[in-house]
Amino acid sequence: RPARLLLGQTKLAMGDAAGAAETLRPLSGLGDATAEELGTLARALRSAGDPGADAVARQARQAAANGLMAALTTADKAMRGRDWPTAIQRYEAILAQTTGDNVLVLNNLAHAYSQTGNHTRALALAERALQLAPDNASVMDTAGWVLHRSGQDRQRALALLRAAARKAPGNGAIAGHLKAAERG
Fold first, then answer.
1. CA pair distance 43, 49, nearest whole angstrom
2. Inter-residue contact 132 to 141 (CB < 8 Å)
3. Contact 137, 104 (CB under 8 A)
4. How many CB atoms sit inside 10 A of residue 98's CB?
5. Residue 119 contacts by C-beta under 8 Å, 6 or more apart in sequence?
6. CB 59, CB 38: distance < 8 Å
7. How far apart are CA 167 and CA 21, in angstroms?
8. What is the pTM of this model?
9. Within 13 Å of residue 38, how many CA atoms lie on the same side as its CB?
10. 123-175 pLDDT, tens per residue?
């Protein structure tokens, strides 16, 4: 498959859209065809003037969505299992394949990086999530907790954790973070 994809991409880049489509077409019949394979075939078909290009482009979008859902499921499972390296790898892959502005992904990735001690990356992600969702209690909690764990800006960490606790008074995790931060 990788050789077929590479050959198809090469033919397409060299202006042989019909040859690229012929090379790549068998991939569209595979149940596990990737978004990259299908997307390249769709571009080849479109360049060759083939009316089936739109249908293959829809397949490519569906494959991409399925891939993202699988990555999200794996990342979420890794978070629950405290498998930080897997969570980081899957969430980073999701960010790379999307616009990078999903608050849940940013927030969870910040938490995972914080758990591995990479506070610089964790704080950058937490800040990005906070910019996108400044009133979200979980996002405020993550940003405050990352600040606290990193030893940076204790006052801001406490302010964020207190605001998160006010917004979600029944959330035990947020209350625990606030209590720990207040103890120092």
1. 10
2. no
3. no
4. 12
5. 113, 146, 149, 150, 152
6. yes
7. 55
8. 0.72
9. 22
10. 999 999 999 999 999 999 999 999 999 998 999 999 999 999 999 999 999 99
DSSP 59-125: HHHHHHHHHHHHHHHHHHHHHHTT-HHHHHHHHHHHHHHS-S--HHHHHHHHHHHHHTT-HHHHHHH
CA distances from 121 to 76, 104, 106, 128, 150 (A): 19, 16, 11, 11, 11
The secondary structure of 145-183 as a DSSP string is HHHHHHT--HHHHHHHHHHHHHH-TT-HHHHHHHHHHHH
96: burial class by Cβ within 10 Å (0-12, 13-18, 19+)? exposed
